[in-house]
Write a structure and sequence with these properties.
Length: about 475
């Protein structure tokens, strides 16, 4: 940008010139003033832009507990974000593991979301630089939450520093291939939708930076209830519904109390159940998992007017999806996950990371060859190898029981919150990712589960049999 002294010099040249030069310089001067006035708007507008010459940006993502996790560079620091279509402005949290991170133009605000707690204080920041491979935003707004309790990393088993959503969905058409864990971000003006009977377009309503889709649910007492659902890639659950007597949305008789997740305003509790059928864009999902959050969790949210619930990652991952906010639609194509049965927590255990611990391993290794005899046909003579027992110390993650559902098999067997998990069915858990351990604990109905835990410096073994939550 031209600074004041440069403009002043141009003006002095203009003043001392002849009429022809004055005319030419006047045109130049007006053009420069125009650039000065417009440059801040053009260069610092809050949009994500793809580098010129690139048709699209391809991103490999992690899919952890049905959530999409992508790398995002914020003011020079590389962080991990959940792609959350339910969030309007990027939110940064859990930055305690960073040596330093620059946050620009900060002032204090109050935000709230789902959860039974109060609204929380946060920092509103402007003028931040976001970079995702060849995609950049030069003037990005974000919120920074300093509350250490808002941390998704322990329950997901991977570092999570924030959530990002609407700004990317607004500026790009995003083609998400859940089965291959790859997404491509296209400019809306140049993208051409694929024409195939396997793809089905579903209208979207974009309201206050959130996307809603219409579907139907069939309950035990009422069938084909029309519902308006938030499209929420930031939810690991399948379907959330809000009670509504007028529409016939009521909690089925078969349900159980459970912890549903963590929101911006605290923990969310409610009842887990299932619906007979969920229909979305002509696709039908039978016996779909559903949850009814307690009314206290969303009582103060004005955005819930005309909204009956949300669809999350456990439904969305069954499709490859093209998100097209620019043309108010999503395109669905079912993938290899479509007919996968909905998974319930049959053990009743919730797990999370809780720091690291030292583990001592006895290892045996060949030390040296003492003597070798003469080689004969198919025989190498006498070979003596000495073995030395050594102890190797390793740092491994601690996995603890963060919650137990009352009356579940693990609860009846005697497991407690805070127990340190050492092994499941003889497999040492430090060799597995957190989500893999949860799979070991919930493999199939009728399977016997043996859990080795540490409690009060003693190792204890518990056994129980997995049972269906609903019959």
């Amino acid at each position: 940008m031209l600074i004041y002294s440069e403009v002043k010099a141009l003006f002095l040249i203009f003043k001392g010139s002849n009429s022809l030069k004055r005319y030419q310089l006047e045109k130049t001067f007006r053009y420069i003033v125009f650039l000065i006035l417009c440059f801040p708007i053009l260069s610092f507008s809050q949009t994500f832009n793809l580098k010129e010459g690139k048709k699209y940006q391809k991103l490999n993502f992690q899919l952890v507990n049905n959530l999409i996790i992508i790398p995002v560079e914020v003011n020079g620091s590389m962080l991990s974000f959940i792609l959350d279509s339910g969030v309007s402005t990027p939110i940064l949290f859990n930055i305690s593991d960073q040596d330093s991170i620059q946050i620009n133009n900060v002032h204090e605000v109050t935000i709230r979301g789902l959860g039974e707690g109060d609204s929380m204080k946060a920092l509103s920041s402007r003028g931040n630089f976001f970079k995702i491979e060849n995609i950049e935003s030069l003037n990005q707004d974000l919120y920074v939450v300093m509350d250490k309790s808002l941390n998704f990393s322990p329950s997901l088993g991977v570092p999570i520093h924030g959530i990002i959503g609407y700004d990317l969905f607004r500026d790009f058409i995003i083609d998400v291939n859940y089965s291959k864990r790859v997404m491509k971000l296209y400019r809306p003006k140049t993208y051409v939708h694929k024409k195939s009977k396997r793809y089905r377009a579903v209208p979207l309503t974009i309201l206050k930076k959130k996307a809603y889709v219409k579907g139907t649910v069939s309950m035990s007492k009422v069938e084909n209830i029309q519902v308006n659902l938030l499209v929420d890639t930031g939810s690991s659950d399948a379907l959330w519904l809000f009670e509504n007597e007028e529409k016939g949305i009521a909690i089925p008789d078969k349900n159980y109390e459970d912890f549903l997740g963590k929101g911006l305003s605290g923990n969310i509790y409610g009842k887990r159940t299932k619906v007979n059928n969920l229909s979305l864009g002509g696709f039908f999902l039978k016996d779909a998992k559903a949850a009814f959050p307690d009314k206290e969790s969303y009582a103060n949210l004005k955005s819930l007017i005309n909204r009956n619930g949300s669809i999350g990652g456990e439904v969305l991952k069954r499709f490859n999806i093209v998100f097209d906010y620019a043309h108010n639609k999503i395109t669905l194509k079912r993938n290899k996950n479509f007919n996968t049965p909905f998974r319930y927590n049959m053990s009743g255990i919730d797990l999370q990371h809780s720091g690291v611990r030292y583990m001592a391993e006895q290892i045996t290794e060949a030390n040296r060859v003492v003597s070798v005899g003469n080689r004969e046909e198919n025989h190498f003579g006498n070979v003596q190898i000495l073995f030395e027992n050594t102890t190797r110390l390793s740092l491994v993650p601690e996995i603890i029981v963060s919650g137990i559902r009352a009356g579940s098999p693990s609860d009846l067997a005697g497991l407690r919150e805070g127990d340190l998990i050492l092994a499941v069915n003889g497999k040492r858990v430090y060799k597995y990712k957190l989500q893999e351990i949860l799979t070991l604990l919930n493999e199939k109905e009728g399977k016997k589960i043996r859990v080795l835990i540490e409690r009060s410096e003693s190792d204890l073994l518990f056994s129980y049999v997995l049972k269906k939550v609903f019959k």
